[in-house]
Amino acid sequence: MTIEAIHAGWDEIPRDYCRSLDPFVALSFAAAATRDLRIGTAVALLVQRDPITFAKEAATLDRASNGRLELGIGVGWLREEIRNHGTDPRTRVALQSERIQAVKKIWAEEQTEFHGKYVAFDPIRSWPKPVQRPHPPVWLGGWGPSTHERILDHANGWMAPTMLGVEELQKGIGELNLLAAQMGKATVPVTATILAPQPGDIERRADLGVHRVLLGLPVESRDTTLRTLDRLAALAA
């Protein structure tokens, strides 16, 4: 357990958190089994992934799905995990910003290079390029003033943290919109996530101006999962 998890009220790390599938491999199966369903990460930790490999994985999945990929990206919170991937937790925010910039350059340019404080590589060529141009939508996760600024600088929208209640979500949307006005930028859409949705939860977030709501689907047996999907479909109807 970490101090952050204890402060969040957790007694232990959730089982599903420790046993999740690799997102890009799992999403390739979802893409193959569907035609119109949007697929995405919520969120992928770019600070724990090589940016050149990440750019190729995401572009490949966007092309294989015919342009259906949405990329939720976060900096992570579990410091021990971040360190195990060779990243200093204290610099992960700056690292994320540079990696997002580098990945976008790889997607956009025939040949590219990048020379920053945390990310540096000589001229490379990387294929395929994403179907969606200039790139798949990037949703930035996180909370607080610095997150809002990074969203407006590097992302297409805000992926609000799952633990935010309606009042906190309303506050965050207001702060994000205010900052956009101060920076002379357009407001961006917001995606909210509800792990255990109840009647009225989706409507309350829609009233705040939330663009899209993601609903939690616990890892269960096939029959239980199908019943849960039916219940979620009724809530979203």
Automatic annotation (TrEMBL):
Keyword Oxidoreductase in annotation: yes
SUPFAM superfamilies: Bacterial luciferase-like
Ranges of residues in domain Luciferase-like: 18-187
UniProt GO BP: alkanesulfonate catabolic process
Keywords from the UniProt entry: Flavoprotein, FMN, Monooxygenase, Oxidoreductase
One example GO MF annotation: alkanesulfonate monooxygenase activity
Top-level division of the source organism's lineage: Bacteria
InterPro entries to which the protein is assigned, alphabetical: Lucif-like_OxRdtase_Rv2161c, Luciferase-like_dom, Luciferase-like_sf, SsuD_RutA_monooxygenase
Keyword Magnesium part of the UniProt annotation: no
Pfam families: Bac_luciferase
PANTHER family registered for this protein in UniProt: ALKANESULFONATE MONOOXYGENASE, ALKANESULFONATE MONOOXYGENASE-RELATED
This protein's name: LLM class F420-dependent oxidoreductase
